[in-house]
User: Which sequence fits this backbone?
């Protein structure tokens, strides 16, 4: 008879070993599935997958840049999640941040010095993201409204706002916003050592370290954990629960707004309704997979971006539809998430 | 008497590196009540969980009625007619008693027949239960009754009860015991886990003692006494007297005047309460549970909105400070500490998923420099509490949810007392604790008294209240029904005050 019992003491090495085995197994299963469906050599496909991220320098920098943005959004949702505040509105918080940045670029153009414009855009984007998450935070704290639905709905408001602004700014009806300040590059985050994404990447790297310290060693981080684990306990020891909820929602939104700024000022220099590209939701996965540990999130976001890039490359190289890459990504994530079961439980056989 | 209902042979169970049971051999006979004794974490609950199919032993054998039994799941246990009533009830709140009782039985649902059968069981053993009452409307004692009827309904004739009296009032306990005696006389085998010695003496036929996972021995209750049983449990001689040092220079520290508290439904929880707590004295608060004890302590700690009245904190120089309306953190800074041990120990005072150090930090995290927390002093405190109260834990970085109930409580009470308060409020501090730990807690409370702290001690055990406290304030239905001096009052006077109003004031 198969018997399942809870593990209480899993060593770090064992946990890592379980993960590695899961990834290897998932690659084997992927290979079988790919072979059955495409009759291609799975090894070729895996090589193509690596090429998606590592074949050229440009691709490698794009990998880092995409990872940085996804990581930034994941860092945004993490403090809220630690507090069990299910912020599903990162998509909207990013968008609104990007929209505010774009608004400044559109109206100011080059009448301010670039550094001033960048600074103002940064502050305004962060503030707008903060407000976008602060509104559901306020209602949660004051009236106990459901933050999951509220933040989710705020996404649609943000999307419609972006569409509205583009419709006003681009009167020709194409509803596509071109690159802003293409000639002057005013309000563009400058290149560093010739790499245009380096500042983005460094910003997120610093933010990762700060978030780790904030959650682990600061008083506010401790309050977040206590409120998340048990509101009753928090109230009992005198934590102002409402204040912590609002403050944490605001921090979450502010970082989302920052991600929007990085996307607009540091990456595309434009705005569109699909700018966040679902990263606001992928970030939920990244954060959970890493168990809310910012350093773990570096790995999980890298993995997910790598899979996305690789999938795109496969689809292109073998003229397959995009769906096949979704299948492989799905299988790999299934194994990684499923392996959690084996770190938490032990299975043994016993005579009946 | 001679039929062995359960026989355990060399049962061993380990959790990781912790040996919970070490070659335990034990028998339970039909028609007897066996009291299983042991300190917190001595493996009583683990042992019983193996009989009821929640765990499976690593080695050793279980015999039911002389035949070897393999119990892999609670279902198997039911097949052997074993039923366990856990400390934490497992009932569906929105269902009625009858619905909860039939839940999980794979037969066509026949509620009318079920109710009839429930009535039969109730009449046979003397339960009182309304099969149509919803669980959320029930008192703790009624919920427990449903749990017991549930296992009887399924035909159990071996019953295991894990600390059934921990949440009951003395009257409810008496009723439970009457029912248990009826069942014993009906030939059922009953195992009861409890820490209260007078209950063991009043109820059981035989006692079995576990210590640190090992079986120490079993005795006939009639041939032993509390002192001997305690010594067996602890492993060395302990004194069963609670000290009561004379108060040194008592002066008013906390004055409560005409305090009235109304709950959300508009019901008066506290009605015009007035009293004074002196520093250097222990003021006991007695009363049937739910008579306003919780509201009283929470009002003082600033956690409960107050309708009217005053709560004054008297400074050393005699100035009075109104506590009503202050933030809980402000009140805490004045040295007013509340250690409330709720029915659900992990619900309020501790965070289950955090380790001992982080739980110690709940009270002190604001002390760190600037933006950051200081983990050094909570680490030190965690070590002290573990050493002093003999908390059984792998280390101080273990989440408290992994500790046994009694050990969780030691962590909670240890933290509150170490807070170096000026007013110490503790409620049910020893609920569910074994004798040795209880006495350590009494000792700690007495140390606070000698430190000139004003102590408010809410308790359930009248013997302890009268031995430990200087005065006892009796609450009944949210009103003060009496204030007695413990040095010249007996248990019956207090018991009478608890159930009716209009006592004399000392």
Assistant:
């Amino acid at each position: 008879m198969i018997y399942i019992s809870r593990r209480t003491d899993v060593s770090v090495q064992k946990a890592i070993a379980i993960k590695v085995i899961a990834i290897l197994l998932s690659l084997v299963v992927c290979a079988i599935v790919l072979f059955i469906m495409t009759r291609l050599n799975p090894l070729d496909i895996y090589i193509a997958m690596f090429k998606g991220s590592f074949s050229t320098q440009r691709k490698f920098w794009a990998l880092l840049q995409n990872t940085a943005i996804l990581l930034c959004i994941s860092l945004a949702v993490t403090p809220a999640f630690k507090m069990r505040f299910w912020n599903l509105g990162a998509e909207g918080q990013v968008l609104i941040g990007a929209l505010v940045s774009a608004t400044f670029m559109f109206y100011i153009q080059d009448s301010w010095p670039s550094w001033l414009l960048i600074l103002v855009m940064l502050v305004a984007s962060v503030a707008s993201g903060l407000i976008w998450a602060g509104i559901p935070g306020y209602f949660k704290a004051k009236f106990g409204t459901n933050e999951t639905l509220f933040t989710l709905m705020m996404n649609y408001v943000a999307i419609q706002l972006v569409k509205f602004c583009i419709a006003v700014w681009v009167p020709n009806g194409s509803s596509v916003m071109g690159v802003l300040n293409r000639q002057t590059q005013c309000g563009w985050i400058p290149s560093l050592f010739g790499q245009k994404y380096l500042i983005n990447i460094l910003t997120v790297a610093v933010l990762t370290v700060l978030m780790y310290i904030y959650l682990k060693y600061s008083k506010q981080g401790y309050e977040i954990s206590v409120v998340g684990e048990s509101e009753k306990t928090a109230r009992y020891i005198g934590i102002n629960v409402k204040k912590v909820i609002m403050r944490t929602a605001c921090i979450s939104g502010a970082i989302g707004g920052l991600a929007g700024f990085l996307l607009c000022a540091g990456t595309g220099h434009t705005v569109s309704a699909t700018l966040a590209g679902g990263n606001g939701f992928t970030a939920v996965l990244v954060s959970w997979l890493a168990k809310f540990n910012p350093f773990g999130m570096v790995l999980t976001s890298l993995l997910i971006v790598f899979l996305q890039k690789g999938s795109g490359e496969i689809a292109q190289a073998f003229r397959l539809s995009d769906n096949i890459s979704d299948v492989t990504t799905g299988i790999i994530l299934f194994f990684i998430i499923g392996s959690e079961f084996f770190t938490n439980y032990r299975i043994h056989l016993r005579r009946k | 008497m001679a039929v062995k209902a359960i026989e355990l042979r060399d049962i061993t169970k380990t959790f990781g590196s912790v040996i919970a049971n070490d070659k335990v051999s034990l028998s339970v006979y039909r028609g007897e009540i066996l009291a299983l004794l042991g300190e917190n974490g001595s493996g009583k609950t683990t042992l019983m969980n193996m009989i009821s199919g929640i765990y499976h032993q690593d080695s050793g054998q279980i015999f039911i009625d002389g035949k070897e039994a393999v119990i892999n799941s609670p279902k198997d246990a039911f097949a052997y007619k074993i039923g366990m009533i856990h400390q934490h009830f497992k009932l569906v709140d929105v269902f009625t008693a009858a619905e909860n009782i039939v839940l999980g039985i794979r037969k066509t649902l026949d509620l009318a027949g079920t109710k009839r059968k429930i009535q039969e069981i109730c009449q046979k053993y003397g339960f009182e239960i309304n099969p149509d009452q919803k669980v959320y409307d029930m008192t703790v004692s009624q919920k427990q009754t449903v749990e017991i009827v549930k296992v009887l309904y399924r035909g159990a004739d071996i019953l295991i009860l894990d600390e059934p009296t921990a949440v009951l009032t003395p009257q409810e306990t008496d009723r439970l015991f009457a029912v248990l005696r009826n069942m014993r006389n009906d030939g059922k085998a009953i195992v009861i886990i409890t820490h209260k010695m007078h209950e063991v003496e009043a109820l059981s036929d035989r006692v079995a003692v576990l210590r640190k996972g090992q079986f120490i021995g079993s005795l006939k209750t009639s041939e032993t006494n509390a002192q001997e049983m305690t010594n067996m449990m602890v492993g060395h001689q302990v004194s069963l007297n609670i000290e009561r040092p004379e108060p040194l220079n008592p002066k008013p520290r906390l004055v409560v005047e005409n305090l009235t508290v109304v709950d959300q439904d508009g019901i008066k929880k506290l009605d015009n309460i007035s009293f004074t707590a002196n520093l250097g004295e222990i003021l006991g608060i007695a009363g049937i549970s739910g008579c306003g004890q919780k509201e009283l302590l929470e009002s003082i700690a600033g956690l409960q909105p107050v309708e009217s009245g005053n709560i004054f904190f008297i400074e050393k120089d005699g100035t009075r400070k109104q506590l009503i309306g202050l933030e809980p953190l402000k009140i805490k800074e004045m040295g007013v500490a509340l250690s409330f041990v709720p029915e659900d120990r992990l619900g309020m005072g501790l965070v289950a998923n955090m380790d001992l150090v982080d739980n110690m930090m709940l009270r002190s995290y604001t002390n760190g420099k600037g933006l950051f927390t200081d983990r050094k002093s909570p680490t030190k405190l965690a070590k002290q509490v573990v050493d002093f109260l003999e908390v059984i834990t792998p280390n101080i970085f273990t989440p408290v949810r992994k500790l046994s109930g009694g050990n969780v409580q030691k962590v909670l009470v240890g933290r509150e007392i170490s807070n170096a308060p000026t007013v110490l409020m503790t409620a049910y501090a020893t609920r569910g604790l074994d004798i040795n730990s209880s006495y350590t807690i009494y000792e700690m409370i007495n140390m606070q008294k000698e430190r000139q702290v004003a102590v408010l001690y809410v308790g359930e055990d009248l013997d302890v209240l009268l031995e430990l406290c200087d005065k006892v304030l009796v609450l009944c239905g949210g009103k003060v029904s009496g204030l007695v001096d413990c040095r010249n009052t007996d248990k019956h006077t207090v018991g009478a005050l608890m159930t009716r109003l209009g006592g004399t004031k000392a």
The first strand of chain A starts at residue 2 and ends at 6. Residues 75-277 of chain A form one domain.
